[in-house]
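Hey, I'm writing a tutorial for new members on how sequence and structure tokens pair up, and I'd like a real worked example in the thread rather than a made-up one. If someone can provide the structure for the chain below, I'll link this post from the tutorial.
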Amino acid sequence: MSEPTDPTEFRGRGVGTSDSLSLNPVFERPGEATDLPKNRMPQSESYPETAYQIVHDEAMLDGNARLNLATFVGTWMDDFAVRLYTESADKNMIDKDEYPQTAAIETRCWTILADLWNATDPDNTIGTSTIGSSEACMLGGLALKRRWQKRRRSEGKSTEAPNIVLSSAVQVCWEKFCNYFEVEARYVPITLEHRTLDGHELDKYVDENTIGVVAIMGVTYTGAYEPVAEISAALNRIAADTGVDVPIHVDGASGAMIAPFCQPDLVWDFRLDRVASISTSGHKYGLVYPGVGWVVWRDKAALPDELVFSVSYLGGNMPTLALNFSRPGAQVLLQYYMFLRLGSDGYQRVQQESLEVAQYLAREIAKLPAFELWNDGSDIPVFAWMLRKGYTDKWTLYDLSDRLRMKGWLVPAYPMPDDLADVTVQRIVVRNGLSHDLATALLAEIKTEVDFLDRLETPIPREGQPVLFHH
């Protein structure tokens, strides 16, 4: 008997097609479908064990999160955190009347952060949790825009052309903010001489329509801090010369949870009068699973009243502000758990360990003749390197990234932003869980793959430049 060639002939026999999911015969049960559609709802029910096994097997095809050195997002929490996560997965953060204690814990968290970031009076600041730092950034930007509009209206001036000043290496959430809320983005290009937004020639970008300047504590491309104090000093000079008084929002997605513990003398936060608001990711170096960010304003005057909605609970009122409505409360509880679990000393030890691993990797990679460091991981535990000019015409960093991916390691290569788009870098993000032992194993793989690529006698063929990573 000849083998069937029509894929539909396999249906019901545990062999899937491009449009169907097949059930492993080990899990088959009498009367249960063995072939389920991928893109349509099945007609019949499945046993929970069956549905679980299908989804579990599909998710298994994802990469190993511990070996993903492209992402800043946390990939590990301890067993007690996982238990707490499971117990609180049904809590809706926006329903403060039904979950008043979760709402109270949210307030504790952003008050803790206000204190950590040196607010003058942490108990009289205002903040909120968000889905992630992107939403937090948008709320910070929206507050800047509303404050600018109110001031302009009080002066009888136009509010039609707001702009915001950003580094060209800014994260894409700020491009979204400018698009969604109709604010002109003024990008200050980074260069080899000025590798971050550092206040250089800031007067060329700032004018009376500037709602604020964004300073990044840990640039996504490289992990480098933008010097907030220098940016503030440049804005002070502009104010003295022109009368244009511009506030700062600090996008501290990563660095706002590193600097207070590991670089406490670095002045970047509410100690600078121009810093109106600070945002961070709880799910990055806040050490929580994905789904939580934070934004805090220096005081209640920095957040326009019309952005705050009052929700009644326990006979009182709770201020709430967010772009999202229903959202998980579990991650807020996890953040508070981590604050209690680690305390300042614990956060310092965890973050310092990550910094030491990053700096160890940077030192060792700098010793390889193929590479030149862009930065060394001394800010946040992130660093990038370039292929040394003239080293080879046989391979690129994209090829090295491909070779490492075959071994399970995700180490992205990508072009720098405009004005440096001809520069390609490779970047490693060290998170809690990347031990010295794992780092040593990664370093051995990098050396092995560089040796392989160096032995090539002809260039690796390629059609166009591959795009393997997006910010």
